[in-house]
Amino acid sequence: MPSISYYLDPTHFDLVTPDGTITHIQHLDNGTAEAVVFIENISPVFVGFQIEPENVIFNIKSTLAQLGVDGIGTEYELDSKNFCAQVKVTLIPHGHIGSKMLGLLTHGAAVGKLFAADERRRVRKPYYLSRMFGRSDLIGSPLLSLGGLHGSEHLILDVVDGRAVAYLSLQNGRLKYGNEIEGFLGTIAKALVKGLPTRRLLRLHQEWDPNATRNIEENEILLVRTLPLHIRTVFGRVVDNLLSEGYHHTSASILQPDTAASGDIYEVFGKSKREITDIPLEFYTLEPYREYVFFADRDQLQTSLENDTFLFNAFKTAPLPETLRAATFIVKSDQLLTLESKDWIARETRPFEFPGTSQTDRQALMVERYIEQQPCYPFLKSISERVITSQGVLFTRYFPSPLMKRMLLGYHEQRALKRIYFQKPSLSSDVFFSAEDRALLHDLEHFGIPVFWVDEITQKVLQYVEKPESDSGMFVPAEKVSVFLKSTIFGIYGSNLLSGPFEQILTELLSGLLDLRKICNHPLLSKNTPLALVTGGGPGAMELGNKVAKELGILSCANIVDFRQKDSSVVNEQKQNPYVEAKMTYRLDKLVERQAEFNLDFPIFLTGGIGTDFEYCLEEVRRKVGSVKATPIMLMGEVEYWTEKITPRFKANLAAGTIKGSEWVSNCFYCVQNASQALSVYKKYFESTLSIGKEGIVYEDGFCIVRDADF
Q1: Same-domain check for residues 107 and 151
Q2: What is the mean pLDDT of residues 304-325?
Q3: What are 28-87's pLDDT values in tens digits?
Q4: Residue 353 CB: number of other CB atoms within 10 A?
Q5: Whether 591 and 667 share a structural domain
Q6: What is the number of structural domains in the chain?
Q7: Has residue 261 got a pLDDT over 50?
C-alpha cells in the first residue's frame, strides 16, 4: 500500500487523475469520433485503482463541453503498477460549434480525466455541507457557498436516495457565442495540445442573454448559469437522473474542490419545451487531510482521544525499531483506530554537529537540514502550504525537537495543530527533558497547543499544564488537570537512601490537612482547594511522601532528575518510584533549575543529606528575597538533629552580621515531632495568628521548636 507521504502531494486529489491526452482518434461517418486517451503520472493513492471499475468515469474537459463536445468512456484499462490508464472514449458533438471543434481535435490534445465515484466517500447528510456555510479558508475564500460567503437561498439541500443533494437554482437566460467563436476554435485545439489553460479565454467569446429561454432542441448544447459557486470541502457531481425530464448533462459533471466562483456554467443537451430550473449536485468527500474540517466538529475523534487504550495502541503501530523517529497527523477517529505502520512517516536518526554561531551561514544551513529530517516536517510543511486544511492532532514517537519551534508555532500550523501526543521525551536522554524542551513546552502552552505524554512508565496519558502565573509546569493525568491548577502544593524534601520513621506522622499530617480545609477559608486552604504533594520522585523519603499522598487521594507529583551513573558520579541512581502520578523530568546539568521549579507553597523537610541541605538553603533564600511568601516550613524529626544541622550556621551568620535584617527568616522554620504539632502551626497560619514574616519573632536557634505545651 502507498505510504502516507503520497497523500501530502499538493498536485493531486485521490478521487481524480491528471488530464489524459489523445493517442489515437478516428472520426466516424455519423459525426462522432472514437479516441484512445492515455493518462499517466496517476497518484498511487488514486481510489480508482481500488474500487469496482464501473464506478470509475471519464470526465470531459469543461472547455470542450461548453463548446458542445461530450465524451463517454466505453472501455477502461487501469494499471496500478505503472500508475497509468488507457480509456476508449466516444466523442459526441452537440450543435454546429461542437462538430467544428471535434474535427480539430488531434493527437496529443488533453481532453479529460478519470473520477472515482467511490460510494464510501459519498456525502450522506446535508449537515456535512451546511456546517461549512459562513466559514472560510485561511485566505478568506468561502468553504462552500452559492452567491456569497454565508450560503444562499438559491442553494437547497435535501436527501435523495440516501445521499445529500444540493439543488442550484438557475439564473434567467442562457449563454451564447458570437460569430467570431469559429475562428477561435483552432487556438483552443492548439492550447489543448500544449497543455495551456483555456476556460478563461473561452469566456471572452461567451455572451449572456438574460431574456433567452432555458428550453432545448435536439442537436444543440444549452449553457445555463447559476450564481457563483465556491467549493473547498468536497467534489461535486451533477446527478443526471435528477435533471428535469428531457435534459442530460455532459460528462463534464465533476466540480473539483478548487472551484472558485467558476463552477457556475453547466452544459446540458436533450429535448424539452419545459425550461430547466435547477442543477442537482451530489458530493464526495476529500481525503481527510483536505476536508477543511474543524477539530471542534470531530466529536468521535475527541471521544477516542479520551481513551488511553486507543492512544497506547496507536503508538504500537509506529514503525520499528524504536530508534526511528516517527510521526503521523490524525484528523478523524477512523484514522486513529485503524492506524498501520504505513500511516507513519519515519526517519532514521542522523546525528548533526552544528558549527555554532561563529559560522552563521553554515549553522543556518545545518539547522535547516536537521529540520527537514524530522518526521513531523512533511506534515507541518503541508499545513503551511495549505495542502493539509483540516485541523488535527500530531502523534510523534519522540517529543519534537526544539529546533522545530518555528514551524510548530507558525500562523497556519498553530491554527491547524490542536494537540501533540508523544511517547518518549528524548532519543538521546530517555525520559529526561532538556531545558530547550521545557522552553518549547512553555511556548506550546501559551500558544494554546495542548501536549500529551503517552507515558509507558505510569501507563497513563499525561497533559502538560502550567500553574497560573508560572513559567514551568508538569505532566498531569488528564482527568486531574483541574485539580493541579487549583491545588495548594505541599512538598517533601529528604534522603533518597532512607525514609525514616515518618510514614505515620506524614499520614496523620496530610489527613489532618484534608480535615482542616473543610473548616478553613484561606486562599491556600479551603473546602474548594485541592491538595497536591511534590517530591523528587526517587526512593527513600521521596517514595514515602508520594505513597502517602496517593493513598490519601492527594495528587502525587515529582520533579525527577537524571541521576543515572556518570563517569565521575558519586550519586546513587534514583529510579522513579511507583507512586508518582504527575511529573516533570530534568537532565543533570539543570539540577539547580529543577530545584527552582518546585514552586512549593508549604515545604516539609525529613532527614536528608547534601541534597536536602541545598534544598533547605533555596527555600530560605526564596523567603529572604521575597520571591515566595513567608509560609511555614516543617522540619520533621528530633530537635537535636536539626539543631546540629542548622543552628551553628545561623549563629555564625548572626555574629558576623551577614544576615542583618534577615534574621526574621528563622520564624519560617518549625521543628515538629508529631502531626498535631505541625497541624497547630498550619492552623495558626491559616487563621493569620502565626508570628511569621518580617515583623515576626527571631528564633535564636534559626528555627522554632514546637512543643505541645507552649505552642
Answers
A1: no
A2: 96
A3: 989 999 999 999 999 999 999 999 999 999 999 999 999 999 999 999 999 999 999 999
A4: 6
A5: yes
A6: 4
A7: no
- Main-chain dihedrals φ then ψ at residue 162, nearest 5 degrees: 75, 20
Last residue of a domain, one of 225, 259, 290: 290
pTM above 0.70, yes or no: yes
634 and 704 share one domain: yes
| 3-state per-residue secondary structure call for 185-253 | HHHHHHHHHHCCCCHHHHHCCEEEECCCCCCECCCCCEEEEECCEEECCEEEEECHHHCCCCEEECCCC
Q: Do both 633 and 710 map to the same domain?
A: yes
In a domain, 208, yes or no: no
Would residue 474 count as lying in a domain?
Answer: no
Question: Distance (Å, rounded) from C-alpha 506 to C-alpha 522?
Answer: 22
- Please tell me whether residues 105 and 139 are part of one structural domain: no
By C-alpha distance, which of 313, 258, 272 is closest to 143? 258
φ/ψ of 408, rounded to 5, equals -60, -35
Mean residue pLDDT across the chain: 91
CA 132/CA 71 separation, integer angstroms: 33
Using the Cα atoms of residue 385, residue 387, residue 392 and residue 397 in order, give the sign of their dihedral: negative
Beta pairing partners, 229: 146
Q: Which of 398, 399, 379, 397 is nearest to 389 (CA)?
A: 379
Report how far apart, in Å, the C-alpha atoms of 146 and of each of 157, 254, 534, 581 are. 12, 16, 58, 53
Residues, the chain: 711
DSSP assigned state of 431: T
CA distance 273 to 281: 23
Q: Which domain holds residue 132?
A: 122-173+213-290
| Per-residue pLDDT tens over the stretch 127-138 | 888 888 777 776
pLDDT digits (tens, 9 = 90+) for 657-694: 999 999 999 999 999 999 999 999 999 999 999 999 99
Higher pLDDT, 10 or 49: 49
Whether residue 145 is predicted with pLDDT greater than 90 in this model: the reply is no
Answer yes or no: is pLDDT of 570 > 60. no
Q: Are residues 540 and 686 in the same domain?
A: yes
Domain annotation covers residue 217:
yes
CB 659 within 8 A of CB 646: no
Chain centroid to Cα 279, Å, comes to 38
- In whole angstroms, what is the distance from residue 230 CA to residue 260 CA? 5
In this structure, is residue 463 part of a structural domain?
A: no
> Over 80: is that where the pLDDT of 359 sits?
no
Q: What is the CATH number of the domain that holds 427?
A: 3.40.140
634 and 557 in one domain?
yes
